[in-house]
Amino acid sequence: MTADINPSKTADAPIHDLLSKRYSPYLFEAKAVESEKLATCLDAARWAASSFNEQPWRFIVATRDDSAAFATLLDCLVEANQSWAKNAGVLILTVAKLTFTRNNTPNRVAEHDIGMASANLVVQATALGLHAHQMAGIDMSKCRHTYGIPEGYDPVTAIALGYAADPAGRDDDMAKRDQGARQRKPFDEWVFAGKWEQSAGI
Amino acid sequence: MTADINPSKTADAPIHDLLSKRYSPYLFEAKAVESEKLATCLDAARWAASSFNEQPWRFIVATRDDSAAFATLLDCLVEANQSWAKNAGVLILTVAKLTFTRNNTPNRVAEHDIGMASANLVVQATALGLHAHQMAGIDMSKCRHTYGIPEGYDPVTAIALGYAADPAGRDDDMAKRDQGARQRKPFDEWVFAGKWEQSAGI
Known about the structure:
2 copies of one chain form a homodimer. Chain A has helices spanning 17-20, 35-46, 67-74, 79-85, 110-127, 140-147, 173-179; strands spanning 57-63, 90-97, 131-135, 153-162, 191-192. Chain A is α+β, with helices and mostly antiparallel strands. Chain A has a domain at 27-166: NADH Oxidase (3-Layer(aba) Sandwich), CATH 3.40.109. In chain A, strands 1-2-4-3 form a 4-stranded antiparallel sheet, with helices on both faces. In chain A, helix 2 packs across helix 5 (110-127). Chain A is globular, with a radius of gyration of 18 Å. The two termini of chain A are 17 Å apart. Chains A and B meet through helix 1, helix 2, strand 1, helix 5 and strand 5 of A and helix 1, helix 2, strand 1, helix 5 and strand 5 of B.
């Protein structure tokens, strides 16, 4: 499989800076995020589209200013994620409401819509000089128990939000990951037309 | 339930224009999207984050320049969506790969990650003067049959992409929907701290 490594070289016109500058850091500076910046990031999330404007997202937030609350949420991550996420300014647990409020039927795209809200949050974070690193690696039953998440709602991801630390001059694995070339599949492998796996020629 | 109607009034600092200007139009101008703009939107999608960089997204695209292909994809939407999506410049069917390629285990966040890629596409579209309207309302079995989508992959959404038409001077239902006040839940109803449904005070 081939892969492109530079977002500015993959279409005739480059993608927007807010998208190309985004990456998911392992290295965060251990400092707080200003509360007004956090509010703006959350505001961005809720203006995402959702099926029937259900807004199926529920976010549980813990800021490092509140060390007990932060430790509680950190403990809901799998260990490999705790090792770096401990330096984030904010931890957010995203939770999906699995049914539509209007008629109590299953919302097939609830988790998809959590993804859209989370992506909006990340765009806003980037605009504010912040970075985010999203994790599927959470202990779902611990999340449910710790916060009393009821039936009908599922934890989906955690988001570490904060100020990325400069990896320059470090040679540990996490610094290497933050400095490594980012790769994505070429269009031929995922953009189809007419039938499955037939390249759209983009 | 109360709701806010103006994104610029809901946090101390406004969210980014690329997020606040976004809406999901019912009225599109019946004209093509330039191929280089489509490529840039797709490029934006693939630079989204995904779990283990799996990039579980597969997109099937049909442009209105190719009327037969466009009609085929339009026919995969539920009828209520066909009535307005027929004017879009491009229709895109999003499909999720349900397992990780690296080890063939289930990817719990595949549909979530489709949402993130789709949101990136929408941000880029907005930056290029385009709008997108995403739909859960698709005929999943018709999608699967029409395009030969194999086991292990699920259709997720369709995206109508194009130039929004000005609703001014029209009084049909779709123009009213495009001009209506947009509403979102106040933070207290979805941003929690410490325990479920305990407001984070954002």
